[in-house]
Design a protein that fits this description.
Number of domains: 1
Number of helices: 0
CATH topology: Porin
Shape: elongated
Strand order of the largest sheet: 1-2-3-4-5-6
CATH class: Mainly Beta
Helix content: under 10%
CATH architecture: Beta Barrel
Distance between the termini: 14 Å
Oligomer: single chain
Strand content: over 45%
Largest sheet: 6 strands, antiparallel
Structural class: mainly beta
Length: about 110
Amino acid sequence: PNRLEIDLGFIDAGWYDGFKGTLMYHWVKNIDGGLNWYLGAGGSLGAWDVDNDKPGNDENHDDGVFLDANAQLGIEYNFTIPLQLSLDARPEFGLINDDFDFGYGLGIRFTF
């Protein structure tokens, strides 16, 4: 069965703040037993704010928004209990700022 993945992440690291929402569609193919591989396509939308100012210096502030087109390739294992482990890679192509990022994910999912 194919599926949708919805992610929402936040970061608050003092001088760097941001959030990111991602929506991916996965095509899931069985390899053997509980072992599957999946291919995904989707996008991300988010915003970031960098404020590394020192007193009297406002030159180290920057912020913005981003919109990405994403691909995803992963492998997962479904246990006989309602637990799933996954590992994936996700290239992200910036549609607003011509940026390119590459992310990796390790997932532990409760399935029902």
